[in-house]
Amino acid sequence: MLLDLPARRKNSISLTPLIDVVFILLLFFMLSSTFNQAKQIELSSAMTGKAKQVTSSTTTQKILLYSENDVEVNGVRYEWRSQKMLDQLASFAANGDNVVLAARSHVSVQSVIKLIDQVSVSGVKNLNISESVTR
């Protein structure tokens, strides 16, 4: 007994769902990525020629960056961006004090940059950066 079997149909992959998936992935990556411009910090370099003489009315304040969350200002430790630390920076700016910034050797460069940015936003004009401290 011979049966006439219908010709087997080849299953083909439809491209429409694949194109939809590609567009969804494209939208996801476009919307999830950021296109921010890099921020810049303006630093004035030391001028050659006549040195600026430090008067007796200005004092030198020392800031030591211990870790990502700890800052020591003149021997007193503060939490990063705490109100007391911000008040100290504002008083340094108001008095026109010289500020020396140092960091422990294990502190990341990004943390130092954030602190430099915070000090300059607070209005401090005389900022010096010292070598890293290993104590």
Notes on the protein architecture:
It is a single chain. With 135 residues, the protein is of the alpha/beta class. Helix content is 33%, strand content 18%. The protein has 3 helices and 5 strands. It has helices at 15-32, 83-95, 109-121; strands at residues 60-65, 70-73, 76-79, 98-103, 126-129. A 5-stranded mixed beta sheet has the order 3-2-1-4-5, with helices on one face. Strand 1 (60-65) and strand 2 (70-73) form a beta hairpin. The N and C termini lie far apart (96 Å). The model has no long low-confidence stretch (mean pLDDT 79).
What topology does this entry show?
Elements: H1 15-32, E1 60-65, E2 70-73, E3 76-79, H2 83-95, E4 98-103, H3 109-121, E5 126-129
Parallel strand pairs: 1-4, 4-5
Antiparallel strand pairs: 1-2, 2-3
* Secondary structure: helix percent: 25-40%
Residue stretches low in confidence (pLDDT < 50, at least 5 long) are none
End-to-end separation: 96 Å
Shape: rod-shaped
Placed side by side, the strands forming the largest sheet appear as: 3-2-1-4-5
Rounded to an integer in angstroms, the radius of gyration calculated over CA atoms is: 30 Å
| Main sheet properties | 5 strands, mixed
Alpha-beta classification: alpha/beta
Strand content: 15-25%
Number of helices: 3
Along the chain, the helix and strand elements come as HEEEHEHE
Which features characterize this protein?
135 residues; 5-stranded mixed beta sheet; 5 strands; rod-shaped
